[in-house]
Structure formats: C-alpha cells, structure tokens
Specification:
The chain is an alpha+beta fold and 115 residues long.
Length: 115
C-alpha cells in the first residue's frame, strides 16, 4: 500500500477535519487507493505492445494556499499525452491546476495543486 494512501486514511479519521479536506481525501482514496492502472481516474488505457497505463502518487505536500500532489504516469505507446491530459482534467476539482513536468515520452510526472 502506498504511504500517501495510508496517510489519507489516517487523516480522514480526525473529527476536526475541514469538510473540503474530507472531500479531497475521499477523492484521493477513490482515485488512487489500490488503483494502479488509472481506473480511478478514468485513464485506464492499455495496448498489446506496452500493456497497461501505470499511475503512482509519490508526493503530497502542504504548500501555500493548498496541497500539491505529484504523480508518476507511464502510459502505453499508442496513447498520447493529450489523451491522458483530457482524461485527467475530467477527474480534477475545478480549483486544481496541474502541469506536466520532466519525464520521457510515455513516462511523465504531474504536479497538481489544489488551492
């Protein structure tokens, strides 16, 4: 199990948690907990040549004005970055900003900040 998911589960148990944080951690768990192939984000692409898309949240930070979640995605060679981006945008809260950074074709990192 991913450490970020363990943290999200532990934080959700706190009674004094603000409602918007409960919503965020619910989304985080629904999107990533035991969902390694993008199915929680609607991006469960796969092809015969390179297999299934893989997604891993690897960093959750408290930043000024919100939280920043960084995820790594390895997507099939027959899928484009544009297809992955379009699928992700449908799953994010309206107040989330995100952008691709680093990586190689078919292996990219994404940082999302929720203010």
């Amino acid at each position: 199990m991913n450490a970020i998911m363990l943290l999200a589960k532990a934080i959700k148990k706190r009674a004094e948690l603000a409602p918007e944080l409960v919503t965020y951690f619910d989304w985080l768990l629904d999107s990533f907990d035991q969902r390694y192939f993008g199915e929680g984000l609607g991006i469960d692409f796969q092809d015969e040549d390179s297999g299934k898309l893989m997604v891993t949240p690897y960093l959750l930070q408290k930043v000024e004005g919100g939280l920043k979640l960084s995820i790594a995605i390895r997507y099939p060679v027959t899928v484009t970055e544009k297809q992955v981006t379009a699928g992700l945008k449908k799953q994010f809260f309206r107040e989330v900003s995100f952008g691709w950074f680093g990586g190689y074709p078919e292996l990219c990192m994404i940082k999302m900040t929720r203010g």
